[in-house]
From TrEMBL:
Protein name as catalogued: Gamma-butyrobetaine dioxygenase
Residue intervals passing through the bilayer: none
InterPro entries found in the cross-reference section: AlphaKG_dependent_hydroxylases, GBBH-like, GBBH-like_N, GBBH-like_N_sf, TauD-like_sf, TauD/TfdA-like
MF (Gene Ontology): 2-oxoglutarate-dependent dioxygenase activity; iron ion binding
Annotated ranges, domain Gamma-butyrobetaine hydroxylase-like N-terminal: 11-89
């Protein structure tokens, strides 16, 4: 896999040529910091045993060689030779064009609209409980599309906690470990009425926002009440294509969100409606008309255009060509990436019953579980 290694710039870097002719350059300080020898990393968990301050600022490479497909690097002034796995270096190379247009998405993400059709990530509850392969297949779909559905689950109260147990832990909030979604008298939240709800992300007034939401159906004989999901990333892409300046305004300026519906609770946050990482990666959408507070962080000169972009984003989200709709039966549930996918509900009548339960969890647990399953074949091969 690794054919050749050459010292560059008096030892400040090395150039590697991999099988097939691909070349990558690595700085000496980067290589030393990312060594996996027993004095740099703990064998059991891979955590670093040293700080950057323990590595000499004048660290450089005095010799390199390729032996048995591994890279051997001798560092000075330590006078130590450290071995590197060629595949790891190839996977973690950074010598590439890092330029991206603002709003780019990671390779493992696929944006979608109503044309997603029957490609909804769908799995049987018992199957994902019993099979790591089935669980991985479903979690892979959730990572790719930002939501997924489970069928064939139990219909006892609190069954949704078993969904969270598949990959992580429940994130408890002021609503408790889980909350009831059914009509209430004098509700503390409009979700507890029969009203239709615009597509939204949940709890935008929290910092950090819950990154996953699970909704689980226990009863559903009422007329209406269908669930809808909308890909906020695709909505942001559409806005960027139509109105680059409006997209820029919604990413550069913070909106404000607030919730004070329960005694002793007053939650506030200040975040952009469309959030980008420093390198322009699209990493989050916060959109919730019910919880929007006064926007005060946009300059006067930009406010009219900001509101025009805000309005257009809402119109895109409301476009039926963006939505995937389904009705949950008892024992069915769905999960959404609350940093990306907006969910909604059509209004329903007082006849019959509609009882869902909801809870929050964290995406890092889901991604960790998926990554651990995906790494098992490689670890077994090694």
């Amino acid at each position: 896999m690794l054919d050749q290694a050459t010292i560059l710039d008096g030892g400040k870097a090395v150039a590697l040529t991999f099988a097939g002719g691909e070349q990558q350059r690595f700085h000496a300080i980067w290589l030393r910091d990312n060594a996996w020898d027993e004095t740099t990393r703990a064998p059991g968990n891979g955590q670093r045993l040293i700080t950057l301050g323990d590595i000499a600022p004048q660290t450089h490479v005095s010799a390199v060689s390729v032996e048995g497909g591994r890279l051997q690097v001798t560092f000075q002034p330590e006078g130590r030779t450290i071995s590197y796995d060629a595949r790891w270096l190839a996977e973690n190379g950074y010598d590439r064009d890092h330029a991206h247009a603002p709003g780019w998405t990671a390779p493992e993400i696929e944006t979608w609209d109503a044309s997603l059709g029957d490609r909804i990530p769908l799995a049987d509850f018992k199957a994902v409980q019993q099979s790591r392969d089935e669980l991985a297949r479903w979690l892979h779909g959730v990572r790719r599309y930002g939501f997924g559905k489970l069928v064939g689950g139990p219909t006892e109260s609190a069954s949704l906690l078993k969904v969270a147990d598949l990959f992580g832990y429940v994130r408890e909030t002021n609503y408790g470990k889980y909350f009831e979604v059914r009509t209430e008298v004098n509700p503390t939240n409009l979700a507890y009425t029969g009203l239709g709800l615009q597509a939204h992300t949940d709890n935008p007034y929290r910092d950090p926002v819950p990154t996953l939401q699970i909704l689980y159906c226990l009863e559903n004989s009422a007329e209406g009440g269908e669930n809808m999901v909308v890909d906020g990333f695709r909505a942001a892409e559409r806005l960027r294509e139509e109105n680059p300046r409006g997209f820029d305004l919604l990413t550069r300026h913070c909106a404000r969100f607030e919730y004070a519906g329960s005694a002793g609770v007053r939650l506030r946050s200040r975040r952009p409606m469309i959030e980008l990482a420093p390198d322009g990666e699209l990493i989050g959408v916060r959109f919730n008309n019910r919880s929007a507070a006064a926007i005060t962080d946009v300059p006067y000169e930009d406010m009219a255009d900001y509101y025009a972009a805000y309005r257009r984003l809402g119109e895109i989200i409301d476009d039926t060509a963006m939505e995937v709709t389904f009705k949950l039966a008892p024992g069915e549930s769905f999960i959404v990436d609350n940093t990306r996918v907006l969910h909604a509900r059509k209004g329903y009548s007082g006849a019959g019953s509609r009882w869902l339960q909801g809870c929050y969890a964290d995406k890092d647990g889901l991604l960790s579980t998926l990554a651990a399953i995906e790494m098992q074949p490689r670890e077994a091969a090694e």
